[in-house]
């Protein structure tokens, strides 16, 4: 026999476990905020841009084939920028206490579609340090590409600068807390339904009908304790009055 759950039963379950749901949601949101604000180190990002183009001695316009060649070279340049040959020179020039792999993890290189501009982004807990690394990578790459590929088609378009009120790119506490709120709410609702499913105690007439598969002939309603006390007090008073009357 299939059991169906009505919307009223779902709402009753949520209402009965509302305290548990709110508690789990609040704990998840608060924990996310505390970790984001006090335990995760803020990471700042600095970016520089380089332009890939062919050197021209005259003022003639670029040909379409030359632009396409530059776009194909950009994919190669993206790999060279993060290669050990470039990064080792950057580490040596800045005197960094990092390995090539550790520095490589901080660097992101990319370009917009059909664009000859390459973005070099560096993430670091120190915004000034991130800007120095980004600018050094661009200058070292501009020098070394002449020896690596025997071309001179890279120009620095813009240098990385640190703003006065620089804000970290991660963590994002508000976003993390919003995600934790949704996850905590879902976990609370799921736990509420799980506890309701595992609860085998008999509470209502419907539970008895499902358990015994027999119709309920009658039920004794629950009486309020205050009502019971007042009724008993009245009965005691009446009995006293009757006793005094008979005694008289």
UniProtKB/TrEMBL annotation:
The chain crosses the membrane at residues 20-40, 174-195. Keywords: Cell membrane, Membrane, Transmembrane, Transmembrane helix. Pfam families: GNVR, Wzz. It is a multi-pass membrane protein. Residues 141-194 form the Tyrosine-protein kinase G-rich domain. InterPro entries: Bact_polysacc_biosynth/exp, GNVR, LPS_length_determ_N. Residues 3-94 form the Polysaccharide chain length determinant N-terminal domain. It comes from the Bacteria. It is found in: Cell membrane. Belongs to the CpsC/CapA family. This is YveK family protein.
């Amino acid at each position: 026999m299939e059991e169906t759950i009505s919307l009223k039963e779902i709402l009753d379950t949520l209402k009965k476990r509302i305290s548990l749901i709110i508690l789990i949601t609040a704990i998840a949101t608060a924990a996310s905020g505390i970790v984001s604000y006090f335990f995760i180190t803020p990471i700042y990002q600095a970016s520089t841009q380089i332009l890939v183009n062919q050197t021209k001695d005259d003022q003639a316009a670029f040909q379409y084939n030359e632009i396409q060649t530059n776009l194909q070279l950009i994919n190669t340049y993206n790999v060279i920028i993060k290669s050990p040959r470039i990064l080792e020179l950057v580490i040596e020039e800045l005197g960094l206490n990092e390995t090539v792999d550790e520095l490589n993890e901080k660097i992101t290189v990319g370009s917009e579609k059909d664009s000859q501009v390459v973005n070099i982004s560096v993430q670091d807990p120190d915004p000034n340090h991130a800007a120095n690394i980004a600018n050094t990578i661009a200058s070292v790459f501009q020098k070394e590409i002449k020896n690596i590929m025997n071309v001179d088609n890279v120009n620095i378009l813009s240098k990385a600068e640190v703003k006065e009120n620089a804000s970290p790119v991660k963590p994002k506490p508000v976003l993390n807390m919003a995600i934790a709120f949704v996850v905590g709410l879902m976990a609370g609702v799921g736990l509420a339904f799980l506890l309701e499913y595992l609860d085998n105690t008999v509470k209502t007439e419907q539970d008895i009908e499902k358990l015994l598969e027999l119709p309920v002939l009658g039920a004794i309603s629950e009486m309020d304790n205050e009502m019971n006390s007042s009724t008993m007090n009245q009965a005691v008073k009446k009995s006293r009055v009757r006793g005094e009357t008979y005694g008289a």
